[in-house]
Design a protein that fits this description.
By secondary structure, this protein is mainly α. The chain is built from 9 helices and no strands.
Length: 219
């Protein structure tokens, strides 16, 4: 994970003078604070109405500091998107490394990690799944690439792990992508509408979705 790992809370004050940390450390702290502030502003206002000034103010920094890290708000949301997506993939990878009693339980480990990450960081999740859609062509390309990476990770894991349990494998890689698309839309709807009340309540729905696709592949 990059230095700007979202789940790491940064100190609110950086020492100055002869006790000041090295420049690299100060920039890392600033970037973390800007990411947290950007996630809040994008979730509150939406990408269209968010501004560099609002993000800077939320972070307790000047606009000049914002522009030291990002050329504009588009660059900011792309960087935040990458951080959020990387953290979700990392949490899922860690979860599925744990031994499971059955293949359905193995799948649930990844699902729980994904939903838990979104639940713990709802504003970053809003950027990852909702606000990025309206952030322009580059953002659309980045979103497509990340969804493809999620699908590849799920497909590869299935091909490697399912045989150990005598479980079915996806008929094609597109089957894995179809599951990812459905999962993302379910999570996006929850973030936009609050249905269900807790995003982690989607776990059994996602379980049925993925197991159903796999059962059809084995039929």
């Amino acid at each position: 994970m990059a230095d700007s790992d979202l789940p790491t809370r940064a100190p609110t004050v950086v020492p100055r003078g002869r006790h000041a940390p090295p420049l690299e450390v100060r920039l890392t702290v600033q970037r973390r604070r800007l990411f947290e502030a950007a996630a809040t502003v994008f979730a509150r206002r939406g990408f269209a109405d968010a501004t560099a000034e609002a993000i800077s103010r939320e972070a307790g920094m000047s606009k000049a500091t914002f522009y030291e890290h990002f050329a504009n708000k588009e660059e900011c949301i792309l960087a935040l998107f990458d951080e959020a997506a990387t953290e979700c993939l990392r949490q899922m990878a860690v979860a599925v490394e744990q031994q499971a009693e059955s293949y359905p339980e193995h799948l649930r480990q990844g699902t729980r990690a994904f939903l838990r990450t979104l639940a713990e960081w709802p504003e970053a999740a809003q950027t990852l799944l909702v606000e990025i859609i309206g952030a322009g062509p580059r953002a659309a390309e980045r979103r497509d690439a990340i969804l493809d990476a999620f699908a590849e990770a799920i497909h590869r894991d299935n091909q490697e792990i399912a045989p150990r349990y005598g479980a079915p494998r996806f008929a094609t890689r597109d089957d894995a992508f179809a599951c990812v698309g459905a999962i993302v839309e379910l999570a996006s709807r929850q973030l936009r509408t609050g249905t269900p009340a807790d995003i982690r309540e989607l776990e059994p729905v996602i379980d049925r979705l993925m197991l159903g696709v796999l059962e059809q592949a084995a039929a």
